[in-house]
User: Fold this.
Amino acid sequence: MGDVLSVVTSLIAGSIRVSIPIAFAALGGTLSERSGIINMGLEGTMLMGAFFGVVGAYYTQSAWLGLLVAMMAGALCGLLHAVLTIRFKCEHVLAGVGINVLASGLTVVLLQMIFNAKGKSCEVASFDMITLPVINQIPVLKDILGQVSPMLILLAIAMVGVWFLLYRTVFGLRARVIGENPEAAGSMGINVYRTQYICVILCGILAAMGGAYMSIGDIHMFSRDMVAGRGFIAMAVVIFGGWHPVGAWLGSLLFGLAQSLQYRLQSGSIPPQLVQMLPYIVTLVVLVFARGSKHRAPAAEGRHYYAKGEQ
Amino acid sequence: MYAVEMHGITKQFKNVLANSNVELMVKRGEIHSLLGENGAGKSTLMNILYGMYAPTSGQVVVQGKPVVIENPLKAIELGIAMVHQHFMLIEPLTVAENVVLGYEPKKHGCFDMKKAVEEVNTLADQYGLHVDARQKVEELSVGTKQRVEILKALYRKADILILDEPTAVLTPQEVSDLFRVLRKLRESGKTIIIITHKLKETLELADTVTVLRKGQVIASLPVTEQMDQAQLAELMVGRIVSLETEKQPVPGEHEVVMALRGAVVTRDKRNVLDDISLEIRAGEILGIAGVEGNGQTELIDVLTGLQRLSGGAVVLQGKQLPAGRITPRSMLAAGVGHIPEDRGKRGFVGGFTIAENIVLGYHRNQPFARHGLINRKARDEFADRVARQYDVRMDSIQDTVGSLSGGNQQKVIIGRVFAQDPKVIIAAQPTRGVDIGAIEYIHGELVKMRDAGKAVLLISADLDELMRLSDKIAVLYDGRIVDRRDASEYDERTLGALMTGHTPDSVEKEVKQA
Ligand SMILES: Nc1ncnc2c1ncn2[C@@H]1O[C@H](COP(=O)(O)OP(=O)(O)O)[C@@H](O)[C@H]1O
Ligand SMILES: [Mg+2]
Assistant:
């Protein structure tokens, strides 16, 4: 009995850990899509975050400063995506693919230049687990949340922050309006472009934090193309979560669960190739179900807005 | 004295001169009608006044002061508000959120929803615009949505209210409600500019009318008792137009060509078509009256094979069609021609040429195609003949249909359908968004088809059109046919009442009392 319980608690703890990077990226994606801009570049932005987190930590010997560098890199990725889609009216998906390709190449080149390595960086300063005072005393719960990464706490703050921003502030109301009908927003004298820029840049920062967790929050180093599709899973999570920050977080947990189940099952008798497919199969299945849900995408998502007869 | 003066306004789009040296003088406290055909430049002129477009040249004067209106924000500050032709509402948000947008009440830096609701309710009461501030816009009827748009304007403390074709989507009842509100606003000192191409409404509502044609002001006149529709129509089109359609009853037996028997279409457990039986007869136009969304679309789709029946049957020339085998293709082959209600969506492919569009749907038939290969020469010859016969104004049949005006796009579709010698014609909103000249022409062609013994079903939101063309009219409400009679037995008020759910009995009583 105690055995089953410990399996379950460690499974849940594992799910939460695995869900952190996806959740960050999905929160960012939610924000961006709510303002009408699809960010297909989540994957590449995460990769940049992972890399520059390591670079920052390497030069400053501090995980926190590493995270800050990662966030700045993410902001730049967001800015790039915003300029491409808003200023130059690139197709959103194409711009995102461009960012992914750029990130994949750039990180490899810089890895060579900075760390003189082909596959992996050296180990750098990373986040240590912290002990949560009260929770650490509660049985069962302490096995799940007694010891956590400080980035999990940041994630919780980010989730509440995004929710508050979208649903409680005037800025958020306007962002949501823009995602539904930018022409209407423009005709009401709202600055459509500025709002979209802010949302997409915030999205970049959040996605980069997710990437940084994977490197300096988890394995203490960068390894080539380490994001491995999580950015795309995050895009699916945005949809599955109904374009809502809480939904994004719950969706990420589901994928975390699929992933940590996969780790456990790998030691079993099922062929490992099949097991490794699990998170991706879950993505597909979930997307099929999400289609039937009552949530729908922001009406103007992926569309270009032309202010004042420019064209 | 003048709320708005626009002097020498010119607006050049890439290759269109939308406004050319336009003079517009709007007196304070009047209702001013801006009249003109589609494409005359009315919306462009008002978009300039509202700061959506910058004029190429010209001067705008508001309340006596020369101004430059760079953007809507500036217009709002000057007390100008605009209700656009396509509503600028955010469907998933509440009425209150939509109304306060851009001027949101705040508490501690956060959006104050409670205050927003209060303010909107107060405003709505003040002007008798009944809405529920907490309701989501997507749940509202078209008429209510328009009230929300007007509330938006009032919330911004507008003195000058521009309405772009506000009646295009309303029922007769909603139109008279709207006019009541507009008169009330005039009483309270507001200036109203109403864009329209409807002559009747101009005469009924406006104090002054300015007529635009091809970007130029043709006339600006006070609306008087003596003024009539023919006079306005002539100003608007530039020649004498007949507003009546010549129509004599077709003699002889009118056999049933197509019929529905107890047709039912179920969607989300609701019957969107509920036990519909109707007969479309040779040499007759059967009109369908109804507010949009009461089953018209489903009715069209059933008759053209786009929608499968949940119950009942389609009968064509006395034979019941096997339910599982009805497809759009089989219906076309059986001689059911279709003029779709949304021509941009189902009527044509905008990026394709006129020639390609004229054979679309019939493209696989001889001589347009043989063994799956397209015979371009045969197609182009045919298309050229049809386009000429149906008076499509174009440079060449190789132009894309998307580059044509609404009226000419519709003529392409009508040519395509009529040239195939159909037995039945399903004509849905055949003159929507089409200029008066083309309306006159299309009406004439529809009546010609009827005179030639075709069976015609006409679905139209335009009651004038329906009463002018139809021999019989059936009223569709909530998926059922609630009344049907000879067209001559109806008047606009009766139809309007039936369309909005009043029973035939109650309508009759009301008419007797009045
Ligand atoms: N943004 C635009 N770009 C290019 N051409 C336009 C634009 N808006 C309107 N036009 C053209 O200007 C002319 C006038 O259009 P509009 O003002 O919408 O007419 P109306 O409102 O009287 O129907 C039309 O030929 C239309 O195609
Ligand atoms: Mg217009």
